[in-house]
User: Fold this.
Amino acid sequence: MLGAMQDWDLRVTRLIDHAAKEQGGREIVTRWADGSETRTNWAGVRQDALKMAQALRKLGIKPGDRVATLAMNHARHLVSWYGVVGAGGVLHTVNPRLFDDQLEYIANHAEDQVLLYDAAFAPLVERMKPKWITIRHYICFDGKPDGSPGSEFEHWIGAEDGDTDWTPGDERDPAMLCYTSGTTGNPKGVLYEHRSTMLHAITGLQPAIFDMDATTVMLPVVPMFHAASWGLPWSGAAAGIKFVFSAVNDAAVLCDLMNREKVTHSAGVPTVWLATFQHMDATGATLNTLRHAIIGGSAAPRFMLERLMKAGINVAHAWGMTETSPIGTTGAKTFDWDDKTFEEQLDIKQMQGRVPFGVELRTVDLDDPSVVLPRDGKASGALQVRGPWIIKRYFKAEAEAVDAEQWFDTGDVGILHPDGTLQLTDRTKDVIKSGGEWISSVELENAAIGHPAVAEAAAIGIYHPKWDERPILVVVKKPGAEVSPDEIKAHLAKSVAKWWLPDAVEFVDAIPHGATGKISKKDLRDQFSDYKLVDA
Amino acid sequence: MLGAMQDWDLRVTRLIDHAAKEQGGREIVTRWADGSETRTNWAGVRQDALKMAQALRKLGIKPGDRVATLAMNHARHLVSWYGVVGAGGVLHTVNPRLFDDQLEYIANHAEDQVLLYDAAFAPLVERMKPKWITIRHYICFDGKPDGSPGSEFEHWIGAEDGDTDWTPGDERDPAMLCYTSGTTGNPKGVLYEHRSTMLHAITGLQPAIFDMDATTVMLPVVPMFHAASWGLPWSGAAAGIKFVFSAVNDAAVLCDLMNREKVTHSAGVPTVWLATFQHMDATGATLNTLRHAIIGGSAAPRFMLERLMKAGINVAHAWGMTETSPIGTTGAKTFDWDDKTFEEQLDIKQMQGRVPFGVELRTVDLDDPSVVLPRDGKASGALQVRGPWIIKRYFKAEAEAVDAEQWFDTGDVGILHPDGTLQLTDRTKDVIKSGGEWISSVELENAAIGHPAVAEAAAIGIYHPKWDERPILVVVKKPGAEVSPDEIKAHLAKSVAKWWLPDAVEFVDAIPHGATGKISKKDLRDQFSDYKLVDA
Assistant:
C-alpha cells in the first residue's frame, strides 16, 4: 500500500445519518388528505426509520427483499424509504394510477413481501389482495384496519425503540425498484443501486439541477411513486432541506402551503402548473417565495415557462425517465445567458436542456442505429444515453438493456444542438415515416392545439402504399367550438412543412390515455387500424 | 444478477471528457508572468492532455509513476493535470515556496520521474538538480533551455497527434500527490485517489461550496500547487466553467483581469483580499461582476468578510487541509439566514462553517482523546474528521493516519456549535495549557493585532513550575509606533479572560514564518527556549 484515502461505501443510509446529525431540527411538514397537518424533522425521520428497520426485520425481511409502498407524498412515506433501505431491503414504490392487471403483475413480479399503503387506496388494496400472491403483510400509513383513529404504521413502528444500526451491505446492492408504466407489454422494473442512487443524489444538488442548500424549502409535487420522485428524497437529505409534502395535489392547497411554509423550490409535471395558474387567476393568489421550479415528465408549453420566468422564478425544464434515475438533462442557464434576449432565453428553456457531468447523450439514425448523428441542431434520431445512474439490465431480465458500449436506447426521438442542448421531437414508436423521411407526431400535435377550437390532438401514421406512412390528425374539439378539417390544415401550414400536413383530420369525442395521463398512441392506432386513406 | 445500473468507474479523466464534449468552446484564459495573454478552451485542454499522455509514455512513464510540476496557475499547468492522470500517472504538485531541504526531500521521497516547471523557477531548478536523484526529465512550461523564444512544453507535446485513449485503471488508483509543508519533521505526502477526487469534485459544485454552473467564470487565486488548488481544476471541468488564470498574484493584475474577463467567482487566502482592497482603495477600482468568493487557508478577519458581503458578494469562508482534499467545511448560509441581522450573519461567517454531505467532524478532549465532546458551542477540543476524501494513510507510511473508526486528527483545536458550525480556536501544538485549562494562542493574537501599534503578534506557552505553562506575547510594532507591555495588556483585557493575559510582552523586530507564510511557532519557541518568566 503506497498510501490511501478513506474507505467509504456509497450506501444511501449515509444520507439520513447526515441530515439527522447536521440538520436534525429542519422541518418535514405534511398536509394530509384529511386536511390535518403534522410536523417532524430529519432527526425524527431517522429515528422512525430505525424503528421501522427493526419492525421489518421482525417481519422476516432480509437484505434484498422487496417492500412496497402505495402512497402519496408525506413524512411517513419518507420514513419508509429510509426504513426499507436501512433494513437492507429494496423499496418498491407502486404507482396507484396503474391499471389492475399492471398492479397485479408488478407486485407479483417484484415478489413484494410487505405493502405500506394510504387509507385512500384501501379499496384498491382490498380489490387486489386476492391477486397479490407474495405480499404477506399490509400496513396502512394513515388509518387502521378496524377504522379506529390513528395510524397503523405509527403503531407498528412505535413498538420498537430505534436502538439499532443500519443493515450493512455492498454499495452495488439494490436499493429501490421502480416499474415503467410501459406502453406495450408488461411493465419493466428498474432496479436502482445504492451507488447509483448516491451519485445521482449528490449530482442533483448543483445549481443547474435542484440548486439545493440549507435554505431550500421544497414542495415536491412529483409523486414519491413516480420515477423515484426524481431522487428528491435522497438529494433533500444530502442538503438537509426543509420538505413540505402534500398528500393531495389540489392547486388551492398547494398555493396555500407554498406561501404559508415559505416554499422556495417546487418540482412537478406541467399539468400541475396549469392548475396552479388557473387557481391564481381565479383567486388573485400569488407565489411569494418560490424561486426555483423544476418541470419534467412531459414538455412544458411556452406560455408556462414564460409566466414562471417573468415572475422571477428560475425554471429548470428537465428530461429524464425511470431508466435514468431520472436525471437526464435540465434546462439550466447557458454560459452566455445574460447576453440573450428574453425570447432567446425562452427558446432555450423550451428545449430539454443539457446533461450534467455523468450523463452522455447521442442520437443515432432511426433506420440504421450504427450511424451516429452529428450534434448539428438539425439531424433528428433515436436518443441514446449512458452513465452511472442509467439502467444496464431490467429487473429479472435475461439480457442487457444496453448495447456493448452501454448505450441505452430511450425510445425518444430528438435533435442534439451543437452546444449539447437536447430537443425532443417524438417517441420512436410514434414518429411517422413518409417517403423515407420522418414526420414528428408531437410537432403536428403542438401546432394543432394552437388552434382556438382544438382541445386535444393526436397524430398517427396510417399505411400508405406509395409513401409507406402518411399522418392523420385525430382532434377533440373544445365544447361548443366548430372547425373544419381544411381550417385546421390551413392553421398547421403556418408552422410545418407542406409534406407534413395530415392527409386527413378526424374528429372524435375523446382520445385514449394511459396510466400516467399521457395519450396512448397504441390504443389510438388500434382504434384506427382499419382506417383507409382516400388516395391510398 | 437481479438487474443493474451501468458500470461507470470514478476516473478523473471523465471530467475532461465531459468538459471537452459539453463545454468544448468555453474559454480558459491565461495571463502569463511576462504580461502576455493566451486563450484556449476545454476541447483544446483535452487535446493537449492527450498529446501529453502520449509524450509521457514515450518518456517511459507507467501507471502509478509520479510526475511533478513546479508552477503557478496557467492553462499549461491545467493541461498537465489531465495529461499526467490521463497517462495513468500520479500528479505531484510541488510548492515552490518550500525550503531547499524540503524540496530535496519531497521530490526524492515521491520518486518523481519528470518535472514540469515555470521559467520563473529555473534558478531553483538549477540549484536543486544535483540533489534530485530520481528526476530524469526537466521540461519548461514557458521557456526553452537555450533561451530561444517559445515553450519547451508546447514543443514537446506538439510532436504528438493526440490520437490515443486515456490509460485505464481502477477507481482507487492514486491520481495526485500533495505534501503538507509540515511544521515539524519531514513533509508528509497525501495521495489522492481517482475515486476520492471525483466524489470531491462533484460535491464541490453545490451552492454551499463553489456554486458552479455553466455561467461561472472563476479566477482561482489559490495556487495549483496548494492543496490540489482546492479541487477547482476538477470541479471546474465537471461544470464546464470558464477559467481565468494569472501566473502572478499582483492585485492590480487580478483586479484588471476580474473586470475584463467578467469573473464571477474567486477563491483564495485572506492576504490576497487584503492586497486587493488596498489596490481598490488606492485606485478607486471596483469589482463589477464578482458574486461568489471562497476564502480559506487561514481565518479571514471580520472587516474583510464585512466588506465583501456589503458589496453583495456571497462569501464562503472555508476550512480544510491537504489531508482533506481539501473540502472540510464552508461558511454557507444557515437555514434561517434571512431572519438574521447583518451582524449575526457576520458572526456566523467569521466561523468556519458546516460540513457538506460526506464529511463528519467531532471534537475530543485534548487530554483524553477517548472523550468525545458535546456540540454545545462551548467545549473546545481536538478536531477530528472522516469521510471519502479524507486521508487514511500518508504516502509510503508504515501505519494508518487514522484511528480504528477512521477518525483523522487534524491538529486543529475547535468548538462545534449545536447547528454543526465549526469554530477554530487554535492548533493543538500551539494551545497553551495553564493550570489544567487551555488558552487559545490565536485568540490572544487576534486581540493583540487589534491594537493600532501592533503589526504582528504571536503567543506561545513558557514553562511555569506552578501552572505548567503561561503565555507570553511576542510583538512586532508598526514602523514608528510606540506602545508599552502594560498598554497592550490593558487592550487585551477588553476581550479575553484575566487569567489568559500574558505574563510578559516581548518586542522583536521580526517573527519567523514558514514556507506557506504562516507564523512558525516552532521556530519562535526555539528562539524563546531559554526564556524565564519573572515569577517562575
Observations:
- The longest strand of chain A covers residues 454-464.
- Chain A has a mean pLDDT of 94.
